TrEMBL record:
Pfam families: Formyl_trans_N. PANTHER family: METHIONYL-TRNA FORMYLTRANSFERASE, METHIONYL-TRNA FORMYLTRANSFERASE, MITOCHONDRIAL. Residues 48-157 form the Formyl transferase N-terminal domain. It comes from Diaphorina citri. One of its GO terms (molecular function) is methionyl-tRNA formyltransferase activity. InterPro entries: Formyl_transf_N (IPR002376), Formyl_transf_N_sf (IPR036477), Met-tRNA-FMT_N (IPR041711). It is an enzyme of class 2 (transferase). The gene is LOC103506009. Its EC number is 2.1.2.9. GO terms for cellular component: mitochondrion. This is methionyl-tRNA formyltransferase.
């Protein structure tokens, strides 16, 4: 999903600085492996908001799993956006892809939303993309399909900054469901 971001950073096309924050320890985290493979600076959560202030325009969140305090969100002039694997408000929570398949959904997608400090997956909707779920799709296959779309959608948002985050509509509460983490 994130492969295009370092390229854009290296070529200075859209992104001038890219660094990674991870809360997971060890080399088994795909995010940590990605940062190491791309030779990106890697920070561990929790981190000092002063490291952010005046250094970045926007924060991007992918597979993070922690509520982010206002102090950190507000350190980014344009706030933070999150890539979520469902058409929100359906399947808020940690396992949207698994729940979409388990509950027989015929479609899912990607939502790019603004990050809010007190709730997961409830921020304004910056962009959405819908895709169908075939009867043969596994969670892994659907994840890979959505990861590609998510990366493209994220770059689309970056190209459309700041308009896309400033004009993002509120997420409706109607139709909201929550997908608990699956172990």
């Amino acid at each position: 999903m994130l492969d295009d971001l370092p390229y854009n950073c290296r070529t200075n096309t859209l992104i001038s600085k890219l660094e990674v924050v991870s809360s997971k320890e060890g080399k088994h985290s795909p995010v940590i492996q990605f940062a190491q493979d791309e030779k990106l600076t890697l920070y561990r959560w929790p981190m000092d908001p002063d490291l952010i202030k005046d250094n970045y325009d926007i924060g991007m969140v992918v597979s993070f799993g922690h509520l982010i305090p206002s102090k950190i969100i507000n350190a980014f002039p344009l706030g933070m956006i999150n890539v979520h694997g469902s058409i929100l408000p359906r399947w808020r929570g940690a396992a949207p892809i698994v729940h979409a398949i388990l509950h027989g959904d015929h479609e899912t997608g990607i939502s790019i939303i603004r990050v809010r400090p007190k709730h997961f997956d409830r921020g304004e909707i910056v962009r959405q993309y819908r895709c169908s779920i075939s009867p043969d799709d596994t969670a892994g296959e659907l994840h890979n399909k959505l990861a590609l779309v998510g990366g493209q959608l994220l770059l689309e948002c970056v190209r459309d900054m700041p308009r896309c985050v400033l004009n993002a509509p509120a997420q409706p509460d109607e139709g909201a469901t929550y997908g608990m983490k699956v172990i």
